[in-house]
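Title: Prediction job returns without error message
Component: structure pipeline
Severity: low
Priority: P3
Assignee: unassigned

Description:
Job completed but the reporter wants confirmation the result is attached to the right record. Sequence as submitted:
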Amino acid sequence: MATTADFKNGACIKHNGKLYQIVEFQHVKPGKGPAFVRTKIRNLENGRLVDNTFTAGVKIDFVRIERRPYQFLYKDENGYNIMHQQTFEQVSIPAELIDHPQFLREGMTMEAMVHAETEEFLSAEVPTYIEAEITYTEPGMKGNTATNTLKPATIDTGAEIRVPLFINNGDRIKVNTGTGEYSERV
């Protein structure tokens, strides 16, 4: 077992029976009373950020979490089927574990966080930016570009986003998957 002196940003711990990732921490030694460690930790099950205070020197269980590369294959009634890129092992994970599943396309690579001892999937992350093709959008009016107006559009993954008026059907664009916003034309 380790103590609070071993805290590092990004380390994963088991606290109150749940898995957390340390986002930031600060050792505090007040003039009066015992030292403590003030932390911000992220719950790996639901992604919530929690403020917590540990007394200095308390024993903590560190957990080994691995980030592994996977490739998205297809979606069926069991969930999203992905394949490990080195071992070619195929697994099915539910949609709740994927941060933005509406932007997944067959063959796309993604990173999954896996508990190293139990082989349990904690989350899967789609790349921050993807290139996509516009499959449907209303045509823009010529000369209607004076304002920063957006219109709805559907991309080839099936997700609906908002794009500027000058974007047409068949255009390739870059999309920020975290916000679901248009980034630039490719």
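Comment from assignee: result matches the submitted record. The two ends are 51 Å apart (CA to CA).
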